[in-house]
Amino acid sequence: VKAQAVINKHPDKIKGLKPEKITKLLRKLLVFQEELDLQNKKLRHIQGELENSCNFFYQLYNLAPVGYMTVQTEGTISQANNTLAELLDMSLDDLHGRPFIEFIPPGERQLYQVQIQDFYRNPDGKNLDLQLRRGNGKTLNVRLRGRLVNWPHTNTDPPETSEQLLVIVSDITELKRVEKKFKHQAHHDALTKLPNRLLLSERLNQVLAKARRHCQYSAVLFLDLDNFKTINDSLGHSVGDRLLQQVARRLRRNLRRDDTVARLGGDEFVVLLGDIDKELHKAASQAHSTAEKIRKTLSEPYQIGDQKLHISTSIGISLFPLNDEDADGILKQADTAMYQAKTEGRNAFRFYRPEMQSEAQARMILEQDLRKALERGEFVHYYQPQVDTFGRIIGAEALLRWQHPDQGLIAPAKFMQVAEETGLIVPIGELGLHAIFKQYNHWNNLGLGKMIQSLAINVSLRQVHQRDFSQMVIDNLKNAGIDPQLIKIEITEDLILSKRRLDIDQIMDLKTHGLRFSVDDFGTGYSSLASLRRLPVDEIKIDRSFIRNVNIEPDDASIVETIIAMAQKLNIDSIAEGVEKREQMDFLNSRGCDRYQGNYFSHPLSAQGFTTLLEQGEGRPITLTH
């Protein structure tokens, strides 16, 4: 039947062929037909598998946890998956055919325009983070990652392809939130929530670059709280932390929105004032006003629990740009100026001057020299007699001096602050006790010890803060074999005000062992009758600043009279230091002062000089030599 059909269809080609030839051709035709049917069957199978794969891909495409879209070269979305539609709170129809730029918030389109165009042209290996606006008006943080592909068009015959951008859209909202949290923690102080040194450095560099670009002056104010350590040590770190938090709040309230206040650590703060003025003198005036405002604000009382605290601040100011200084250099300048404010009395501010750098260098050299002096044993003690109302020697005060190999004898006013701040006063004081006790034993061996009823020794708050201070004193007394009642420890008013349990316990321990205590420079601090009663005080030492004009200044006279009367009421001794004139002695004598000390009787003497004075005195008034 098939053969007849072929013959009927092509009679002209079949004509003249032999039957055998026709049969052979027909057989080949049948084989070809069978192969063709087999290939068609395989093709239908492949087409079915392809359709299944396409369906599977389509399901994956729409169920993927990230958004997919294809963007044409001009920026129009040609295809998107369901995940992207859900992320943007829109339907697929809302996405198809719309320019992708429309989904960026209007205020940021210009900002991202260049980045998006660059991403379209060359997306490989790039991530682009931006915000997209959702259908509900909210924004979504996303990360784009794309690749250029040849995308087929299904609506053309034969099918055509064109280059399009395949983009993966990931929701990074949570990632951004975590990044923001960690970035904030890395750039802010945990206690006060203020910017820390790292963030301050970034902002200072930005302000410095802007100031140079616009020829505008800015300023850095370096703040250090005065005597914060005393409060922290005496009242506890929790009180200190709350005080720092209140300081931070006050600083923030007193600055402009664009200014920065940062905490560097401890009780150090920095205020960065940007864009002050184009004229240097006006910029300096505004920085001056801000510093004064801060100084007054921080000096107001702080209420922490049931305690009312007072604290002041020392401020260093550095204006910039003046030369080629960098951010670190500007901070160092302000720090140097702050230290100058501290050395000149605290509760003040100073502008940076070039000569301050040499002063800072001198301080560093002084610290190094102090350490060497301690190693070489260059610290010695001078002794100034203390006399009774008849001018007879009844005791002495041991006064620390530094016997410098090049500069000679140096008074403590030149080095004591550095010794305190560095902690060197602790080993200096311990070695000093040993030397003083040894010297007393020498006088005793000479038969002169009976003339010394008390030996006054100064100690600082830093020394008392040492946990083993009282035991160290007791051990030295035992080793020297000295009666503890002979020793009179001179303490400052800061120690009287201290609420640090360790300080009070150590004082009470020493008192139990028989030592006596004198309050040095009384009247210059903030101690009161109530605070005096907290510690076992045996003597009040009236400061020389009141004695200087006691017979000519009514106010000074009233203060001295009040102190002497208070001592009498408390049944403790009074001693006036800095007595230099007969008139001062007569005034004090008439008011009932018990003891005296000053150049009117004798200047501080070396150990040998004091030995000579004791040998010459033999109980006679030493005022006869004047």
Notes on the structure:
This protein has 24 helices and 21 strands. With 626 residues, it is α/β, with parallel strands linked by helices. The strands form four sheets. Strands 13, 14, 15, 16, 17, 18, 19, 20 and 21 form a nine-stranded mixed β-sheet that branches. A five-stranded antiparallel β-sheet has the order 2-1-5-4-3. A five-stranded mixed β-sheet has the order 7-8-6-11-12, with helices on both faces. It is elongated and about 170 Å long.
* Percent range of helical residues: 40-55%
| Extended strand count | 21
**What is the count of helical runs?**
24
Strand content: 15-25%
How would you classify the helix and strand content by structural class? alpha/beta
Outline type: elongated
Brief write-up:
It is built from 24 helices and 21 strands. The protein has 626 residues and is α/β, with parallel strands linked by helices.
Topology:
Elements: H1 2-9, H2 11-14, H3 19-63, E1 67-72, E2 77-80, H4 82-87, H5 92-95, H6 106-121, E3 128-133, E4 139-153, E5 160-171, H7 173-187, H8 197-214, E6 217-225, H9 228-235, H10 237-253, E7 260-265, E8 268-277, H11 280-299, E9 302-304, E10 307-309, E11 313-320, H12 327-343, E12 349-351, H13 354-376, E13 379-387, E14 393-404, E15 408-410, H14 416-422, H15 425-445, E16 454-458, H16 461-464, H17 469-480, E17 487-491, H18 493-497, H19 501-512, E18 516-522, H20 529-532, E19 539-542, H21 544-547, H22 554-569, E20 573-577, H23 582-591, E21 595-597, H24 607-617
